[in-house]
Automatic annotation (TrEMBL), chains A, C:
The lineage of its organism: Bacteria, Pseudomonadati, Bacteroidota, Bacteroidia, Marinilabiliales. InterPro entries: Cobalamin-bd, Cobalamin-bd_sf, KamE_N, KamE_N_sf. This is Cobalamin-dependent protein. Residues 99-242 form the B12-binding domain. It comes from Plebeiibacterium sediminum. One of its GO terms (molecular function) is cobalamin binding.
Automatic annotation (TrEMBL), chains B, D:
This is Lysine 5,6-aminomutase subunit alpha. GO terms for molecular function: catalytic activity; cobalamin binding. The lineage of its organism: Bacteria, Pseudomonadati, Bacteroidota, Bacteroidia, Marinilabiliales. Residues 6-510 form the D-Lysine 5,6-aminomutase alpha subunit domain. It comes from Plebeiibacterium sediminum. It comes from the Bacteria.
Length: 242, 529, 242, 529
């Protein structure tokens, strides 16, 4: 069992900051303190507070928590043990025996290309080659602001094995709507089960993606080989080698 | 600013400027021969067209859509004609159009009548714009002493205009001099301007005339209260550049992000379309004394800020020429640049300083818009906060004009209210703490800073030479800016471009050209050639 | 009922940072996320994590909470409506009719004089005169590192109406021990009820001080007149005018 | 550093130095005539005295307490005498003393025997110190290239030496070059040095020889692992200055906070006592090649950093003379100063820069210790973090030597592990980002920075003149430093001061004087006079 740590094991120290919709005053400070208590902290100190406007106040808070967690019970898939560039290509040669077709885009109104480019472009990202450089992958990067309809059309035309969807803007859950729509459209077309569908972006997690009906989700710090590994292993396990 | 701290070669600067002049020349030739859907709609708006139909389609769009190819003659004729024929006020006519009236089919009356009537509405527009500029000038003069230098620029982006108002007023009270209402994701791709007060946007709030009005009022209110003129900013890049410019002129916006290069590269707007649009939008901005903000800073989100610094400088030179050719004086050219170097770069601060100082020295009168670190911001809000402090430092130490405040949560979410507060306190601390630093230090002769500026200027000249050889359209196609390639006939909006007929009539355009002295410039140019 | 605020009313947004005693890894990130969930937050994002050493990792976290608080029910004594310099002196003249004797010190091993000086010294603090400047107050500032025994001896010798105790160092609860000892000693001497005892310091609250048997506690940002007001009003109400 | 960026008048600097020489002269006269409890205990420790009795009283204290007024003859005679008489090793004798043996009553043997025996132990001490300095020099040379510049100095203060070890090793791995173990609140007032490994301290950890050893080992370990020599720091101010210096020499500490002015003003140590102690402690530090850190930076926690900047400079001059007179070369004088200006002060950054740069130019060889903002740190950890960044900036831009890293939680608690990590990343970012800034900029002639430095130097000279006129003892009594008054005969420890008898014997003191060339300096000085 572990707890958060300040300077002594199990002291449970945590730093917080938040805004409350009240005018800055001694009462506001007291409210912030009690709020932190209600959040479950003890030995709470409101170390700083200031007015943000007539109706809002900002607080910096330190407190301690009794909450502990069993570290041994945490389970996580470790993407870092994925195959590398060479291993992926060899894997495809050996198990799939033909080029794998991948179509990617940043969809909806989202115009952030840098993330999907990092995964797909020749030059790659942080010294990791992008999918376009993989000899055994045929990669098509459709760019940004691509509608779900357009993406599906292309994927069908190119006989894609996998679709990559990048979503960076998440404000007001815009990505959820857009991601859900893609899956619905694919199901309507009856092609969902033929194609691996993967989502990615700095605020996309595997869990969320799976919930929305994707095969996987990749967050910040993803490298091309992580996605490539996933695709080819999934294909192999689905015995999609036709 | 005649004395150069960087010891830059004035002849080289002059050379770059001449190259930029040559580069924009063929583009201007194209521009002068074409009009677009949105230019016509903007013209109509200036003359009085407004409102929407039951499907939410704006009246200016209804008119232009109905005109089809007749657009080559200019939409004005038809609108004014309808006003005369129906003996209606614009309000009355707008209502009829919204209800289905097709004015393209109404027989045309006498040309002179139309021309005279048009002048009436232009006069009305001029009166309103003049009233706006007078108000602004008066307030700015009165409250000058409370302004920060550089002006602090904050963004609100809740998606809901009423929430925006709260956040904007709070920001102003905290010390912002400028408030920008970020547009919703995707608005730049809409080929119309939404209507009315809106409460649902993603990553930003719809730019509508009503939203402009609501925010303008809110900022005037808080401004009066704290004794400051709070500048309001919106965006006229994208598919509706001139229309939004027109709305801004009417509702007294003070600044507009306005750059067709940005639209081409980052929104995949067709290049022909947006260059044509840009010219008219800048004329409107110039007439309404609205500062533009150009967007070359964005190149550094896709390109490396050290390697490709010269693309920004080159683009500033090009944007300057486009702006001059639209009647914008230097004092309204908020040329953009950014502090986007990898924070791990050894001596990165010195290079950023060199870049910012060279922009300052090359464009001494321009109200430079300096953008904060975004690309290398991470979830480490603490590190991000000191990167923002270094950015504020460089801004103050090189006398930048417009300081877009960085958010410590840049990599995470659109700003929380507290993020904005922290950003303002960061800037205020630095600006006060290093107040006269710019004046108190000199750069070592042939030191890192001076040499870097020299190097970037040299690279800029080579780059401009190459662009000039290829032509700007080809250069864009060949990925020379932001490492993004856009095909000449690709992107959005090309179908809204029309070659003007020899009979093309646009009294607003002509009026502005006259007022802005562009006719004579054109003549002079021709003489020089 | 109010909730913390990010950019939309009732969104419940909160920023946290903490350290967990585990090696930095994907598992650690997942643990941090689950820890934040256990702390009661939802839509948790681990926006940053880094190794502090082989055994510790640091996390920056944003999350949302459902916790709300009834602002109308918050009660707080508002020190800001205390009397000012002139009013205090007038009050003494009128109600107590003699000089009030105040003895102050920073006690125990604590050597931080600046706080007690701010309250007592002639020149005061932030443009607020210190107690030494009050014509109707006889103020004795014993300085720092004063033992509780010494303080009590002085207070008796000077016939103090009030004792001011400053405590700045709070690590390992050293102030609690020291503050408790003073009250115990005073009770042993049988003088507790004769003298008003007030504690102060940046991490001292009124609540804490009262719990430890003090008449009041004053935290950061206290001005001399706040303490002076409290003393003289307390004296008047205790009818200590002899 | 012969070229002055500040354009300071070298004659004025020389003048200030001469004034400081005159100021310390009468203090040195007093010092040379006196010894103290702790000087004798330190001498005993160097000769081998160690251990505690069942009440926890250290053997050196037992000896000195038993000696009473015999101290005026020096404790050495009695300890060595007992060793000879009992034919014991120090370990054996220490044990007996701990068990109750009173060596003051043992009849004294032949003086020559005692002197010879003493030399043996001095030789042993010298051997051990030499081994330490050799090790240190070798490692520092080998690992030079991994060191930061300035050296990053981090504090650990858990109260528990084993927790400290964890935090210190983590700090070293994160990039610290120097680790200081803060002492527990109140230790400086103890007239003995606690014994053994300790796990309970308030706001810091007891300075004990065992704790020194534990931490030294831990830092050597991690140092080898990461290929860096991690310097260890502790405190020899307070009532046991020379004893802790002796322990530090034995356990290879690398730096010692060591300043009697600090003890007087901030711990209410008696001035006579601590000046006498300081001399011997500095001789030991000098002999063991240990860098001292002086504490005038602390003045700015009670005085205003702008108004009283000159008191810091003046104190640096005085500390320099005291250090020279104890045999410390300039390269071991970590003179203290601090970035403590009110962050709201207009141009505060420029003044901080002026102060830091003038310290650098006036003491070109000194490994200046630069302290972070503390006084104006608040619970606003974000603001605090950028204040620390500005501090790091000034440090790097003025080539400071030892950078005590500021903590964003300075106003809240002793550092959490994460606070320290953030502090290191802050410093590393700034230091790399502005790496060659110091070299790339110049200060405008007669600008704010140059003028400020000139002003402070002028004020320093007037101040030193006044101190010289009054005498240092009176000046302290009259609140001239840190605005704190300390009566000459007040404070703690005066009862531990003894006038030396003409027969006073202290072979360690003599040995060090010889080794450090202090005898000849004294003679030369007398000649000059
Ligand atoms: C660069 C940038 C831009 C550039 C984009 C240029 C371009 N061509 O891409 C410009 C300036 C155009 C821009 C504009 C806008 N932006 Co922007 N932008 C950023 C910025 C600074 C960096 C994003 C980036 O490039 N990251 C680097 C890449 C490599 O990282 P990444 O995207 O996370 O990708 C990695 C992983 O996530 C993963 N990944 C990503 N996609 C995929 C897909 C798959 C299949 C897989 C497997 C993996 C994967 O792998 C990648 C490599 O590891 C961020 C802030 C920040 N520092 O993060 C804001 C940010 C993303 N932008 C934001 C916003 C709101 C906008 C605007 C909507 C603002 C406006 N209203 O005008 C506009 C409009 C954009 C639109 N219509 O979508 C917000 C989003 C807030 C939110 N949470 O919703 C951010 C967070 C800034 C902020 N705090 O407000 N932006
Ligand atoms: C200045 C200072 C020092 C100076 C003190 C000089 C002096 N003569 O006072 C020096 C350098 C000597 C020092 C030393 C140490 N310090 Co110190 N110091 C500070 C510092 C920077 C500022 C404190 C201050 O002066 N505040 C300004 C005054 C005006 O504020 P204040 O004390 O809060 O007082 C106000 C109110 O609290 C209230 N108040 C205070 N007392 C009273 C009493 C009454 C009756 C009333 C009504 C009101 C009242 O009114 C005042 C005005 O509003 C703080 C960090 C910080 N920025 O806060 C650390 C700090 C207090 N120090 C700290 C420590 C640990 C130490 C040391 C123990 C470190 C060491 N081991 O060597 C030493 C030893 C001190 C000792 N034995 O007590 C820690 C305490 C941590 C903790 N929570 O326990 C702090 C927080 C720094 C840190 N983060 O580690 N310190
Ligand atoms: C010149 C310019 N226009 C517009 C925008 C905003 O984007 P959009 O036009 O998509 O609202 C930016 C953003 O950086 C910009 O720099
Ligand atoms: C010179 C000097 N000595 C010692 C200390 C530490 O205090 P103490 O001696 O009480 O442990 C400091 C702290 O700032 C100091 O500057």
């Amino acid at each position: 069992m572990i707890k958060s740590y300040g300077d002594t094991i199990n002291d449970g120290a945590v730093q917080l900051s938040f805004t409350l919709p009240v005018r800055h005053s001694a009462k506001a400070d007291e409210a912030a303190k009690q709020y932190a208590h209600k959040l479950g902290f003890y030995e709470v100190e409101i170390v700083y507070s200031n007015a943000l406007s007539d109706e809002f106040s900002f607080f910096v808070v330190y407190g301690k928590t009794h909450v502990q967690i069993d570290y041994d019970k945490i389970e996580v898939e470790d993407v870092s043990k994925s195959m590398d560039f060479y291993e992926v290509n060899d894997f495809i040669k050996e198990h799939i025996k033909r080029q794998v077709v991948v179509v990617g885009a940043c969809t909806g109104t989202d115009a952030h290309t840098v993330g999907i480019d990092a995964i797909m472009n020749m030059k790659g990202f942080d010294q990791h080659y992008g999918l376009e450089r993989y000899p055994m992958i045929e990669a098509y990067n459709l760019g940004a602001q691509v509608s779900n309809e357009e993406l599906i059309k292309k994927a069908i035309a190119l006989k894609a094995d996998a679709i990559l969807v990048s979503q960076v803007v998440t404000q007001k859950e815009v990505h959820i709507h857009n991601m859900t729509e893609l899956i619905e459209l694919m199901e309507a077309e009856g092609i969902r089960s033929d194609i691996i569908v993967i989502a990615g972006g700095p605020r996309i997690g595997n869990k969320l993606a799976m919930e929305l009906g994707y095969d996987a989700g990749f967050g910040r710090g993803t490298y091309p080989e992580n996605v490539a590994s996933f695709i080819v292993e999934k294909m192999a396990s689905k015995a999609m080698q036709y | 600013m005649s004395y150069s701290k960087l010891n830059l070669d004035q002849h080289k600067i002059e050379k770059a400027r001449q190259l930029a002049k040559q580069i924009v020349k063929p583009v201007n030739d194209y521009i002068s021969k074409h009009t677009t859907d949105t230019i016509e709609r903007a013209t109509l708006r200036i003359l009085g067209a407004d409102g929407i139909n039951t499907d939410g389609i704006p009246v200016p769009n209804l008119i232009v859509d109905a005109l089809g190819n007749k657009i080559e003659f200019g939409a004005t004729t038809y609108y004014i004609n309808a006003l005369i024929r129906k003996n209606a006020t614009p309000q009355q006519l707008n209502k009829q159009i919204a209800e289905g009236l097709d004015i393209s089919t109404i027989t045309l009356t006498d040309k002179v009548l139309i021309e005279n009537k048009a002048q009436e509405f232009i006069h009305e527009f001029t009166r309103r714009v003049k009233q706006n500029t007078d108000y602004r000038n008066q307030k700015i003069t009165a409250y000058k002493n409370k302004e920060n230098s550089p002006l602090l620029y904050l963004i609100v982006a809740t998606g809901n205009i009423y929430e925006d108002v709260k956040q904007a007023q709070a920001a102003a009270r905290q010390g912002a001099d400028i408030v920008a209402v970020i547009r919703t994701t995707g608005q730049s791709l809409l080929d119309y301007v939404p209507y009315g007060a809106t409460t649902e946007g993603f990553g930003g709030t719809y730019a509508t005339q009503e939203n402009f009005k609501i925010m303008r009022k809110a900022l005037d209110e808080v401004g009066e209260e704290i004794g400051k003129y709070i500048r309001l900013v919106n965006y006229c890049s994208g598919l509706c550049m001139p229309e939004i410019a027109a709305m801004g002129a009417l509702e007294r916006l003070d600044m507009m992000l306005n750059d067709s290069m940005y639209g081409i590269l980052f929104r995949d707007i067709n290049m022909y379309r947006t260059f044509v649009d840009q010219k008219f939008s800048r004329m409107i901005n110039a007439f309404a004394d609205i500062t533009i903000n150009s967007g070359e800073d964005n190149y550094l989100t896709t390109s490396d800020a050290y390697e490709k610094a010269y693309t920004v400088t080159a683009s500033q030179f090009i944007n300057e020429q486009f702006a001059y050719d639209s009647g914008l004086p230097a004092r309204l050219m908020g040329l953009g640049h950014a502090f986007e170097m990898n924070p791990d770069k050894e001596n990165g601060f010195l290079y950023e300083m060199a870049h910012a100082q060279m922009a300052r020295e090359i464009f001494p009168e321009a109200p430079l818009k300096y953008m904060p670190p975004t690309k290398y911001m991470t979830g480490d809000i603490f590190k991000g906060f000191i990167m923002n402090a270094m950015f504020n430092f460089v801004a103050k130490a090189t006398n930048q004009s417009i300081l877009l405040l960085g958010m410590l949560t840049e990599a995470i979410h659109t700003p929380f209210m507290q993020d904005r507060f922290l950003a303002v306190s960061n800037a205020q601390y630095i600006m006060n703490n290093i107040k006269d630093f710019a004046n108190d230090i000199e750069f070592k002769k042939d030191g890192l800073i001076q040499n870097r500026a020299k190097e970037v200027l040299d690279q800029t000249i080579s780059f401009l030479e190459e662009v000039n050889n290829k032509g700007l359209f080809n250069a864009i196609e060949q990925k020379m800016f932001a490492e993004i390639s856009r095909p000449k006939n690709g992107g959005k909006g090309l179908d809204g471009v029309y070659e003007k007929s020899p009979d093309y009539y646009n009294p607003v355009y002509e009026y502005l050209e006259n007022e802005l002295g562009l006719k004579s410039i054109a003549i002079e140019r021709r003489k020089i050639k």
